[in-house]
Records
---
Amino acid sequence: MMENGQRIRILDGSEANLRLLAEALASGNLVAIPTETVYGLAANALDEAACRRIFSVKGRPLIDPLIVHVTGPAHAEKLAFLNDMAVLLMEKFWPGPLTIVLKKRPHVPDLLSAGLPTVALRCPRHPLTRRLLQISGLALAAPSANRFGYVSPTRVEHVVAGLGERIDYVLNGGPCDIGLESTILGLADPEKPVLFRPGAISREVLSVALGRPVALPMPRETDAAPADAPGMLKRHYSPNTRVTLFDHGANLAFPASVGKKAAIVYFTRPSYETDVAGPAVFWLSESGRGEEAARNVFDLLRRLDGMGYEGIFIEKAPEGGIGDAINDRLTRAAAR
């Protein structure tokens, strides 16, 4: 048990602990798990009552589907109808940060897909979660392990801060390597691949792998309707402090009233001295590398959110590749 009223137990990845967590999941409990993208809040995907607890603990609306984590293509085939395009991508990118949306098999609960006839599947590459999947023999539904709408967790302390009084276990796998949620590709119709959410595996890379263009989804008219995939709601990944974006490379002029009440986040460390009387200055990457910026964006947003600023101004990433994923998360974090 933890102090300050928190009941969560932080466990390392010993074989004994993994077996304990496998038993907890089989009994309908929730476990926060590490992946290479962000920490997830896991339940047995075929236990509808356990999955409903995910929605309750997170405060997540039932219109937002869950991603189901599996050990590989053979496991995925027990839950969805695979097609040649899906198998090609699974063989190329799994285990890894690619989620594929496919037509689900009848025994998969509709709760996982907001009542739609599909299911989102991913094979994570974090070694502890892969071992937990193997030991448990379960498919694990696991959205990000945080209160719905808030910044996703990339460290175990983020999970404890957000859900420490609401769940029993978190598996400590260290900081997440990528730091942004997985790419989500719709392949229910293999002739019409759709990029529902950008991630570390870019639209361009997927188009090359498939040998055909990957479309973007139609804009959502309302957040009241079921989403085709997780992470598509307009406002998401949001700190409590107001976020304002500015274009990559733009010169940002602050009104005098902002002063020290605001934080400014550049994509790359500025090469010039900043005015100490102006806003506090931060950056996502020392060298301008997209992968480094992606790994830091959620962690930095969480830190700044607890520092008393009245506003956070963030420079967008360069377009293309993982920059598109960073900008997607920032745009949703800034939405009001």
---
Amino acid sequence: MNDPTQVDALMVMLVGAGVLAAVGINALSGRAGLPAVAGFMLLGILLRLVDSRWTFLNDQVLVAFRFMANLGVVALLFKIGLESHPRALLAKLPSASLIWIGGVILSAATGFFTAFHLLDIALVPALVIATAFTATSVGVSVAAWEESNALKSDNGELLVDVAELDDLSGIALMALLFALVPVLLGGQGELWPTLTNTAGLFALKFALFVLVCLLFATYGEHRLTRLMAGLRRPPERMLLVIGVGFLIAAFAGSLGFSLAIGALFAGLIFSGDPEAVKTEKSFQDLYAFVTPFFFISIGLHIDPAAMATGLGIGLVLMVAAVAGKIIGHGFPALLISGGSGGLLIGVSMIPRAEIAMVIMHQGQQLGPQVVPAAIYTAMVVVSIGTCLLAPLLLTPLLKRWPQRECAE
């Protein structure tokens, strides 16, 4: 298909079909009590399998899907940053830090040991897996807590705090790891001096980026908020915020970080004034429009030839992923919240979707030496499996140990 008009028509048709499919998946998953992200990834896998039989996804169409997926990543991380509230997290850090640190360390260690030693996966892909294992998709578990009227309980609020810390640390670890990847792949003699120099350069660039963000948050954000207040129509206010967020994400990309890093910091900047953003329906509409394409794109990037191998690896990694979270988060939570609270929090941390697959997606873009096709497929299996498993375990556990909401 070389006719530009036909290519454009195919792109628009696939985007329209993707939107309609996302609406249907959202509706069906809501009725079934299952996470929609698993359905989006399965849709992408289905499209890839159909394309392997009847080729219709040419390079131009895949570029369009990649662009939509990048928009989805930016919207996703912007929303996570927006809802993080750094000052509130710092205030709750003493109670959540033990669970957070324990979970991150054990999840990463479990992932690396299973990948590197048991499955004989190369060093760099094993490190990427370990980094992805540290993240948590709390949105999957939150639905079960909300249905049980337990999210406002002590354990429910603790769960959300720890999950936010997991996601922030996962993004930070991703940025550091990918900065070191060229050195780790080089395999030359002076490894540690080179690693030290690379880490130092990364720290300087990251400090520059953080400084620019802090200066904007201190001196520019409130001026932008005043400008927003002068705009009469809500969509104009939201488009102004989104435009600035995209520029910050692009600035991070130009410094060698990912768009995800920039979008996260953009959300953190505006999190100090959440009412200016959260109350705008236009952002929720944009978020609902673009984020499914990120998860659909994950399925599209699966190599059908690697599915059999990836499935086997994924099942082994899934066992490690479940054990790492239940023990890593659950045991420290047991010391704070008791046996039932520890098990509930540990099980709630099992899902890996948004941040874990952002890490794998960014790694895949660096090449097969970083994330081979079979490893990517395996982590999609882990993501889908953990997202389906957690709600199935949580619902009966929350019925057995109902959580009382905190007194206001």
---
Amino acid sequence: MRKLAIILSVLLCCSLPAWGQNSSIKKLESQRAQLEKDIALLGRKLDQNSKSSSEALNNLTLVKGKITAREQLIASCDQTLKLLKDSIAICQGEIDRLQARHDTLALYYGRLVRGAYKNRDSRMWYMYILASESIGQGLRRAGYLRSLSAEMSEQALRIRETSAQLEVEKERLTGLKEEADAVRAQEVRERSRLQDEANEMNRLVNQLNKDRKQYQKQLQEKNKQKEALNKKIADMIRAEQEAAKKKANAGKKNSGNTSGKTTSTAIDTKLSNEFAANKGRLPWPVEGAIVERFGKHHHPVYTNVELPQNNGVTLVVKRGCEAKAVFNGTVTQIVVLPGYNQCVLVSHGSYYTLYSKLKSVAVKVGDKVTTGQVVGTVDTIGGEDLFHFELWKDSTPQNPENWLRN
């Protein structure tokens, strides 16, 4: 039992570093698979655009999204290769350790076998015991001979176990090297594709510069739509907060409660805390690839033009994609805005989420929604299948990527 415990503890100590490396590699593999999916989706959308639309601004957005995803994919390949290199080094070290142990055990076992061979005549063993000066000495000699035999058997078992471990580690090393070769080849392919996409982006940039007036007009229209959205959402949230404040004050007057708390505000606080506790773990409202990120950005072509604040993220999605609630809440407003079509605002206590660019809405004002419930279907606007999502804390927009599951 003690021997088994020792073997298990040795195996566990050896496997812990490998397990940690394997876990990180698996995570990166999952990340690469998602990025490949995003790139494929963006590629399909570009193909659709080439057949149905000649708007260079749309295509530039998609190509930029592909380039960003491709760069992330290459970075993921680099990280994977570094982890695989470390895993290969650890595995090789383990093989060297096991080989040295195997050689030592084999050498010791060879000595035991040679000693036993020289004294292989059983009569010599009996004479050795019978020649004892006392019964005690005879028993000790008999015990020694038994332990010698047992030690030979145990040594042979250790050699077999070490050989088995050695074979396992050699197979693992081969697998790691093959995986590293595959990732290295993928990285070479991705860098070549990245260059092609960079060339495509340059072509689109040249086209945009050539027809500057036409595309600047489109850009101005999009900027106006974004500014209108930002103002409308801020006004909606402000109106919701004022309404909630009035309701809370009315509740205090009607109940004579001077503590400053009502049942409704207690529920909102609980919901707010639950929402905040899930930061970084909220599900994505749609499956797609991000093409516009949160914050202030300059135009990719007219670099001296600062674009309006993007208070959320925009994703390219499959046509007819359904948008789902990221958390339990209440639908507080549904509005229609130019460029964003139907927009649904959901309250989660002091947090708000906005689902926009919807063709149809599956909820109505006042509805209670649960995590994963369908809010509406994404619309195709101007040949684009884009979904825009925002997340606010009171009157302050938050970066959704910090809140949604990685």
